[in-house]
Each structure stands twice: as structure tokens, then as C-alpha cells.
Amino acid sequence: MTTPSDIEPTVFAAPSGGIAAILTGFLTYRGKARRVAHAYVFVDKAPTVQASAPAQMTLDELAQYTDVLQRFAAELVKLNDSYGHPGA
Predict the structure, then answer these.
(1) Which among 21, 39, 41, 78 has most CB atoms closer than 10 A?
(2) How many domains does the chain fold into?
(3) Is residue 44 part of a domain?
(4) Where are the alpha helices (DSSP H) in the chain?
(5) What domain range includes position 68?
(6) CA angle 53, 33, 22 (to 5 degrees)
(7) Torsions phi, psi for 42 (to 5 deg)
(8) What's the rounded Cα separation, in Å, for the pair 72 and 36?
């Protein structure tokens, strides 16, 4: 089962190379934490996002995966908006 801690933001006090934050989403898949989403939040442009899914999932695992992605997207929107890129 996933928990709120499976979305991990890393916010830099001073942006590094134009990157203001990194956001990572994890799914506990068959007993192991697996990265399923990753985003860079930039100071001067829209974020870049990568997502991946296990090749095979049960219906419960699919529900957990979509839950992680929805919460990941919501957190990414908040981070992105905080850097003046609403809706980007």
C-alpha cells in the first residue's frame, strides 16, 4: 500500500543550474519501492516529467499506481506554481 511519504520533493535553497526542485514518486510494487515518476522544476521554464509503469499490474496495483500519479501531479502543480509558472 502506498503512503503520503511516497512523493518526495527536494527543494533547493539556491537553484542549481536553473533547477529549483526535484520531485520523485514511488510505488511499492511487489514489496519493493519503485520510482514511477520524476520531475525537474525549473526557475525559468515549465517542468519536465518522466513517468514509467510496471509492465504488468493487478487491479489493486493499478489503483495504487494511479493514486501515486495523481498525488504526484498535484504536488508538482503546487511546486511549479510557487515558481511563477501557473498552469505550465
Answers:
(1) 41
(2) 1
(3) yes
(4) 59-82
(5) 4-82
(6) 75
(7) -100, 160
(8) 10
